[in-house]
Amino acid sequence: MIAFLRYEGRRIFTEKKNLLFLGFISFLAVYFSWSGLNEFRQFQTEKEVFLRFEKEKVSQLANYAQYGSFGFRLLYEGSPLGLFFINSSVFQDLESNIDNFEAIRVESSFKGKKLFLKRGYFKDFAGILLAFGSLLMLYLGQQALVGTSYLRFLTQCMPLKRFYAQTTLARLFWLDLFFLSLGLGLFYLVRLAGMAFSREETVIFALFLIFLVVMLDFFYLLGQFTAVFVRFRPILFLWLFIVWFLCVFLLPEVNRIRVFNRSQGLESAEKVNLEKFRVLMAWEREFKNFLKANPDMPRDQVRSMQKRLAVQFINSSFLVNTGLETRYLREVEQVIASHERQSVLFPTTCFQFLTGEVSGKGYYGYLDFMEYIMTLRNRFVQFYLKKRYEEPDSPMESFVKSDENIFRARSRLPRSFRFEILLTALYGAVLYLLGYRLLRRQVCRP
């Protein structure tokens, strides 16, 4: 086995084409990781400006009625690991406005510099390794076995099974070592540049690299199988390109279209907002009708009535609206769970779902954000009603304590991660066995 490792190491790392491709991948991975680090630092700078602005805004308001109307903004902050997945996340910059209106708005800003932040394919560490790492592995997989004539000659000195196994293992050893070294090297490089990762994030990134290597091994074995399947004919390169395009582009796009079609069964968000608005307006009409029926009521009694109706709103209408929003969120969660189950079926769709969750800007991060919005909004509405109706003459006080208006998402692994990595490894094992059986049939044929 040591001899095979030396021989395959020389085959991989002394050929100019391989070195050029490996250097190209390494350069792009370093460049986009550093770009992601700079973008993360820029976000931290803008976050400080955001916090100062929100604090200053409260001091400029005249009363709590204005505070309820303007509210405050809530900013979504992804995980520090997101610098490796800037373009592979499900969404980019998100924010919401917490106020006394019933519609929950979640949006992304395109004002100023963000208008020019054009994103595209592969503009991050993960995207580069998916696109070009998979292409390299397909190519090196098909280059591993020279051809049936040479293998017939070789079997006079060595069993085909041994040659096939040791060649595959030796090449995968060097290639896996390269990609693991690249990933870990970049991780510690950005740490030296001042990035701090928690212990949990370090473990998650290590597990991500393990899945990445297993997925790239799948592509290597797919390339090797394809070479045997087409009998090493010149048309092999066309087949490799077709296989690469199907796996990296077409299947993930089909997966995206399928989840989009599934999401069409959800109620319109505007319809939910309209139902909540009707509940709110019914409460407002009740108060206006009371004032019309009692035009001469003293001011202190009006305030007492406002306070009583506000308590009734919290205990009835507001709970109804919260229930509507919660029900809608659970329906969205069902679509996400279905999408996760669907993504498990193929390595590249697994990879895309995984990168979103590891970045902290995935589907489950969005669900956590919505839950946080609802919790914070419930507290803000109670704060607003208390200050406006129970303490109308009290000085203006900000609801936000410290940096509560920053939602810090966490990096996570999908619930199906273990199954994903096992299934991808199983696909690789099947390709290995099928490739060997086809090759043995071709070599042993007279």
Radius of gyration: 29 Å
Number of folding domains? 1
DSSP helix count?
14
Distance between the termini: 30 Å
Q: Spatial order of the strands in the main sheet?
A: 3-2-1-4
Largest sheet: 4 strands, mixed
Number of strands: 4
| Low-confidence runs of at least 5 consecutive residues | none
Q: Helix/strand-derived class?
A: mainly alpha
Quick rundown:
By secondary structure, the protein is mostly helical. The chain contains 14 helices and 4 strands. It has helices at about 1-15, 15-60, 65-70, 125-145, 150-155, 160-190, 200-230, 235-265, 270-295, 300-315, 315-345, 345-360, 365-390, 415-445; strands spanning about 70-75, 95-100, 105, 405-410.
Molecular structure report:
This protein has 446 residues and is mostly helical. The chain has helices spanning 2-13, 16-59, 64-70, 125-143, 148-154, 160-192, 199-229, 236-263, 269-293, 299-315, 317-343, 347-359, 363-390, 417-444; strands at residues 72-77, 95-98, 106-107, 406-408. Strands 3-2-1-4 form a 4-stranded mixed beta sheet, with helices on both faces. β2 and β3 form a beta hairpin. α9 (269-293) runs antiparallel to α10. The radius of gyration is 29 Å and the shape is elongated. The relative contact order is 0.14. The mean pLDDT is 82.
